[in-house]
Amino acid sequence: MHLAQGWMWFAAIALVFWGITGVTQKLATNKISSELSFIWFADAMIAISVILALFVPIQWHVRPLILWAAIAGGTLNGLGALTSFAALESGGKASVVISLISLYPLVTVGFAVTVLHERLTLAQGVGVGLALAAAILLSLEPQPPKSKA
Amino acid sequence: MPDTATTSRATMPSILGMPRWLAFSLLTILVWGAWGAVSKVASEGVDANTNQILFTFGLLPLIAIVWRSPRISAGGSGRRVGIAWAFLTGILGGTGNIAFFRALVMGGKASVVSPVTALFPLVTVILAVTLLHERVGTAQKIGLALALVAIYLLSM
Questions:
Q1: Which end of chain B lies in a sparser environment, N or C, as judged by fewer CB atoms within 10 Å?
Q2: Domain presence at residue A4
Q3: Number of domains present in the structure of chain A
């Protein structure tokens, strides 16, 4: 990885901001349902988009494929946000749930290999194997003691 | 003391023999993984800000569905606090999205940017342990280490 590359700094910003959301998600679902958490999460997204539309130049002419890919991206990401809220609300620890769901690039890599016909390097192949092992280990969290009725 | 919203879902039956949190986590991996692939396509023809606006349009059908849930009216005395945390999650998540899209538009490959940004548990774990006082077991510590190594290798 080359930190000097410009895109890497933006990737680092995303990393930090998304990392903080792992905790704020848990704090939200400690108090309210995952559904209500999602509604307000989405409201914040709408607020950001309104601000962008008002104050930032927007690219209005977009090819249909790109348009629908971007919209589908929102739906997929939103669905993931909803299920991650539900995972946290269901009793998963923030440190475990967030670490586990961060393995989602496995699917992206799988898509790239099978549909886009990209090839995995040896390091990436090892990474896939380690990620699967990690997912199994993370799933071995002992159940919390059940309270007696 | 756990509140009503948390307890009601936490005590629901398992899904396919898995704890509910694990089933929901695996589903998250699936849809976010697909999102990473779709973002690669979208970022080839639209700037980061416009991408975030279109992304938000994609949320609208989900909002319409979730809005019908009776559970959005649940919540006790901490409802306002929970809403504030959820809203902050959206602000941070949306800002992170823009940075992610910007990284793609600037030439970062999706197959590299996605795994790199997926290192975000580093931040979450540090905050969860220090702020939420969560404890991580031995198997999970090994899993965390393997996950981080895996994410690093996937970014190479």
A1: N
A2: no
A3: 2
Q: Which positions in chain B touch A102 (Cβ < 8 Å)?
A: 118-121, 147, 151
Asked if residue A136 and residue A73 are part of one domain, the reply reads no
- Do both A30 and A86 map to the same domain? yes
Higher pLDDT among residues B88 and B129, named by residue? B88
The reply to whether residue B32 touches residue A107, judged by beta carbons under 8 angstroms, is: yes
Beta bridge partners of B15: B18
Q: Same structural domain for residues A16 and A83?
A: yes
> A78 and A52, same structural domain?
yes
Residues A60 and A130 in one domain: no
- φ/ψ of residue B46, rounded to 5: -150, 145
Q: What is the mean pLDDT of residues A69-89?
A: 90
Mean pLDDT for A66-91 is 90
- In chain A, which residue ranges form alpha helices assigned H by DSSP? 6-29, 34-55, 64-89, 94-101, 105-114, 122-138
User: Is A148 part of any domain?
Assistant: no
Q: Which pLDDT belongs to residue B7?
A: 47
CA–CA distance, B69 with B72 (Å, rounded to integer): 6
Q: Nearest CB to B32: which of A80, A93, A130?
A: A80
8 Å CB contact of B47 and A44: no
Find the mean pLDDT for residues B4-20.
66
For residues A53 and A125, membership in a common domain is answered with: no
Indicate whether this complex's ipTM tops 0.90: no
Smallest CA–CA distance, residue B133 to chain A, in Å, is 10
Q: Which residues of A touch B16 (CB under 8 A)?
A: none
Q: Does A126 touch chain B (CB under 8 A)?
A: yes
Residues of chain A positioned with their CB less than 8 A from the CB of B69: 33, 35
At A60 the pLDDT is 82
Identify the band that residue B59 occupies on the pLDDT scale cut at 50, 70 and 90. Answer: very high
Query: Do A17 and A89 belong to one domain?
Result: yes
User: Range of A37's domain?
Assistant: 11-93
